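Figure 3 (text version): C-alpha cells given as input.
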C-alpha cells in the first residue's frame, strides 16, 4: 500500500498478503481467504464464502493495537438476512452483535478487501455496471454495511511492479470516497486500486497487487456456469 502526495510522490505505508484456498465450513464447500496487513498496526482477516455462489458464511477479524486496546477481535456469521457476531478486546469480555441485512441491499461482501478478488468472477465488458453492499464489523449501527456502485469507465494499459498490462478501469463510488480499480483483461486480476478521500494522508491511497500463484476464483469463472440465483448474477446489472 502506498500514500501518494499532491506532487505524485509515492511512499510505501504497509504490505499485505492474501491467500485463497478451497475449504469446508460446517460441512459446506467454501473458499477461504486469509489476509494480513502490516504497518503501524497488524490486521488479520479470515473470510469464508460459499464456493459456488460466493455468499458470505463467516469472518474473523483481528487488529492490534486498536485505539486504546492492545487487540480487538470481531467474529461474524452470516445466515439468510442476518449477521450474528461477537466482539471483544483485551480489556473487555465483549458483547454480542446482531444485525439485519436487507435482501434488497444485496449482494453482500463480508469485507472491503474481498472486492478486488470478487471481480475475478465477473466477465467485464465496456459499459458494465454493478452494485453491491460491503459489510462492516457491524458492532455499531453506522458500520453495518454500505452500498457501492461500480462501472467500467474505460480501458488503459498501466505499468506496475509486476509488468505492463491491458486493463479495464472501474470507478467505484461510496459515500465521500471514490476508488478506481484497474482489472487485468487476461485473467480478471485487480492489479491496482487507488482511493481518494479527504480523510487520507495526502488524499490518495494506492494498493498494488502482485499474483504469486493462479487464483482459484479465476478458474471458477472459466469452469463454472453462473446460476440465476448466484451472488455473482445479482452483482451484474
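Below: residues designed for each position.
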Amino acid at each position: 500500500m502506498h500514500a501518494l502526495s499532491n506532487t505524485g510522490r509515492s511512499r510505501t505505508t504497509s504490505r499485505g498478503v492474501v491467500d485463497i484456498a478451497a475449504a469446508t465450513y460446517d460441512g459446506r464447500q467454501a473458499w477461504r481467504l486469509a489476509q494480513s496487513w502490516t504497518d503501524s498496526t497488524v490486521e488479520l482477516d479470515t473470510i469464508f464464502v460459499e464456493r459456488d455462489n460466493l455468499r458470505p458464511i463467516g469472518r474473523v477479524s483481528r487488529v492490534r493495537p486498536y485505539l486504546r486496546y492492545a487487540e480487538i477481535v470481531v467474529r461474524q456469521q452470516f445466515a439468510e438476512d442476518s449477521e450474528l457476531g461477537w466482539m471483544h478486546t483485551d480489556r473487555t469480555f465483549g458483547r454480542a452483535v446482531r444485525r439485519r441485512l436487507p435482501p434488497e441491499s444485496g449482494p453482500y461482501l463480508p469485507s472491503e478487501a474481498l472486492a478486488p478478488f470478487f471481480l475475478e468472477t465477473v466477465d467485464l465488458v465496456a459499459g458494465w455496471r454493478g452494485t453491491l453492499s460491503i459489510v462492516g464489523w457491524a458492532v455499531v449501527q453506522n458500520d453495518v454495511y454500505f452500498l457501492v456502485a461500480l462501472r467500467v469507465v474505460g480501458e488503459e494499459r498501466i505499468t506496475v511492479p509486476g509488468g505492463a498490462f491491458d486493463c479495464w478501469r472501474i470507478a467505484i463510488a461510496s459515500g465521500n470516497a471514490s476508488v478506481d480499480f484497474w482489472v487485468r483483461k487476461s485473467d480478471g486480476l485487480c492489479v491496482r486500486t487507488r482511493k481518494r478521500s479527504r480523510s487520507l494522508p495526502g488524499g490518495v491511497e494506492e494498493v498494488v497487487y502482485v499474483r504469486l500463484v493462479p487464483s482459484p476464483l479465476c478458474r471458477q469463472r472459466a469452469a463454472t456456469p453462473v446460476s440465476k440465483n448466484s451472488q455473482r448474477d445479482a452483482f451484474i446489472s
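The chain has one domain: 2-235.
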